[in-house]
Amino acid sequence: MALVTTTEMFKKAYDGGYAVGAFNVNNMEIVQGITEAAGELKSPVILQVSKGARAYANHTFLVKLVEAAIIEHPDIPIALHLDHGDTFELCKSCIDGGFTSVMIDASSKPFEENVALTKQVVEYAHDKGVVVEAELGTLAGIEDEVKVEHGKESYTRPEEVEEFVDKTGCDSLAIAIGTSHGAYKFTADQCTRNEDGILVPPPLRFDVLEECIKRLPGFPIVLHGSSSVPQEFVKMINENGGNMPDAVGIPEDQLRKAAKLAVCKINIDSDIRLALTGTIRKYFAEHPDHFDPRQYLKPARAAVKEIVAHKIKNVLGSDGKA
Ligand code: G3H
Ligand code: 13P
Ligand code: ZN
User: Fold this and answer.
1) Nearest ligand, CA of residue 144?
2) What is the C-alpha separation between 125 and 104, in angstroms, rounded?
3) Residue 196 annotated as catalytic
4) Which residues of the chain are under the pLDDT cut of 70?
């Protein structure tokens, strides 16, 4: 199967009450870990590349890694998506360079500017058969180069979504309902603590999601910032020389609930980083004499595969949907 757009994936996900995972890729091991899991579980998957990933690994290397994954896993639909494109030029470069989907993230701009930039990207993309994700509302955390402090985030205003989608022609919409980027999604002040002293975050704003769904029936919604920050990996990092106090994410049951509604794409990056880093830290602690990268990257890649398989089965519900 060649690279696909997300159109068909989202239609099936919407109707089937599941979501497709969008996982960030930065190197070969991550591409392999994700696609091995998706291939074995017969799940559609979105591989997404940020501006930072392109700067790190180079556009061509990433596209070729994804092309290799398609050859190795011909039975599953794979989309290649630009994550948080911040300019028309960046989106154009990815559209011209083989991506099947781009995000234009003008969510930090005033409504009319967001509409104008999104529309410009949509017109260019649709002409080339590429689909476009846009965003309304801002998440806390780091969105590429845009840092939004806790307390400065804003939920999506449901009364704006119809006008935004009508005016821009975008194909999917990322909304802000309380998720945020990175491994520190909430401050201790925003949370309570459970009996083990682990932070318990405030619940997602399902009322905002439901309002958006009412106004955009049948339209695919996207959730960014949807890592759950598994405490087993935070512990593994902290026990092996790391220091990540109070790292906290979005509870998986809330994401599962969202996936059953109109949320068709769920973005996960931090959990992959935590799985990789925890595994490598533990490996180094246990094998201080090893220095061949294949020795520690092999279990790290296996950890990526395992966490992605877990997400596909228990959070997204996309197994068997290829
Ligand atoms: O939302 C941001 C993604 O996690 C990508 O992060 O810009 O560090 O590659 P990055
Ligand atoms: P996390 O930091 O929660 O993994 O979010 C990733 C993301 O939204 C990428 O766009
Ligand atoms: Zn994001």
Assistant:
1) 1
2) 11
3) no
4) 142-147, 152
